[in-house]
Design a protein that fits this description.
Helix content: 40-55%
Organism: Haloarcula japonica (strain ATCC 49778 / DSM 6131 / JCM 7785 / NBRC 101032 / NCIMB 13157 / TR-1)
Largest sheet: 5 strands, antiparallel
Number of domains: 4
Pfam families: MS_channel_2nd, MS_channel_3rd
Mean pLDDT: 77
Distance between the termini: 123 Å
Membrane topology: Multi-pass membrane protein
Strand order of the largest sheet: 4-3-2-1-5
Shape: elongated
CATH architecture of the largest domain: Orthogonal Bundle
Protein name: Mechanosensitive ion channel
Low-confidence stretches: 280-300
Radius of gyration: 35 Å
Subcellular location: Cell membrane
Number of strands: 13
CATH class of the largest domain: Mainly Alpha
């Protein structure tokens, strides 16, 4: 019973000492590493170190020698090494994650293979915790996340550029269309309306919404809008608002959005009906496919079966 009491005292002291050390050293460790993930890992290491010393003290209370402990650990490791291999792999991957810094706690990331987006909640040596934008919680082993493609929307600069393609007809006022589309994007709150150029690597891009003539397509002029948003977790909302504003502005202007359509017209003098088909994406290539239907059609008239029998 005395050994049990002493063991409980050692455990209690270990809990108190670990908490005191974390409080005393927490701020210094944070200032030293300046990264939440490394800070949390270092503080966890302090707690683990305190409890290891406590465990050694408890073993000493029961009269176990360090050599016996080392032999037992060797045998135990040989037996369960295969079982612990995945865990050890995750631990090693966690060390590489903390060293490479592909993302940090609080960053918004996207798992490319699944399309899941969210914020990094915690990074440990074994796994990475993530809250998705759908308010679900993911725990991903570090060995797995290191093998997946991850997009970090918060690295260095959280501003994200989006693109929107708008196809207008050749009869439209292209200059007016470009101005209207740019103005429509500037009206959205999450869109950067202007300011100094945004630097990405060695390149610089205009911060304000800009429309470019992308292509003279077969069925219209393809305009591409490039604009920047400040909040990467609202990309879909920003895109929806921009498209709504573009639609409203172009609807009231001398700009027509290209779409698949057909023209039917009649020639009263000849009695012919002409059908002009514009196929949109596959047609509208500058050539109308015209079909004539009249009494002069090269297709022979249909005969009655009785007349054929008389012949």
């Amino acid at each position: 019973m005395a050994n049990i009491g002493e063991s409980l005292i050692v455990i209690g002291l270990a809990i108190v000492v670990s908490r005191v050390l974390v409080r005393l050293l927490g701020r210094r460790v944070a200032q030293q590493f300046r990264r939440p993930s490394l800070t949390r890992t270092a503080l966890r290491g302090i707690r683990v170190g305190v409890f290891i010393f406590a465990l050694l003290a408890i073993l000493n209370i029961y009269g176990l020698q360090l050599g016996d402990i080392a032999l037992s650990v060797t045998v135990f490791t040989a037996v369960v090494g295969v079982v612990l291999a995945p865990i050890l792999g995750s631990l090693i991957s966690g060390v590489f994650l903390l060293a490479d810094q592909p993302f940090e706690i609080g960053d918004m990331i996207e798992l490319v293979d699944t399309g899941q987006q969210g914020f990094v909640e915690d990074i440990t040596l074994r796994h990475t915790k993530m809250f998705t934008l759908d308010n679900t919680f993911l725990v991903i082993p570090n060995g797995e996340i290191r093998q997946r493609d991850v997009v970090n929307y918060s690295a260095e600069d959280s501003r994200t550029r989006l693109s929107l393609d708008v196809l207008v007809t050749y009869e439209s006022d292209i200059a007016a269309a470009r101005s209207l589309i740019e103005a429509a994007a500037r009206e959205v709150d999450n869109v950067i309306a202007g300011g100094p150029d945004i630097r990405v690597g060695a390149a610089r891009y205009p911060a304000s919404p800009t429309v470019y003539i992308n292509e003279f397509a077969d069925h219209g002029v393809l305009l591409t809008l490039r604009y920047w948003v400040t909040e990467p977790y609202k990309l879909l909302a920003a895109r929806s608002k921009v498209q709504t504003n573009v639609w409203r502005r172009l609807e009231d202007a001398n700009v027509e959005i290209a779409y698949p359509h057909s023209h039917l017209y009649f020639d009263d003098t000849s009695g012919e009906m002409n059908v002009s088909l514009n196929d949109g994406l596959s047609g509208l290539n500058g050539v109308d496919r015209t079909h004539a239907a009249s009494g002069d059609s090269p297709v022979p008239p249909r005969q009655d079966p009785d007349d054929l029998a008389d012949e």
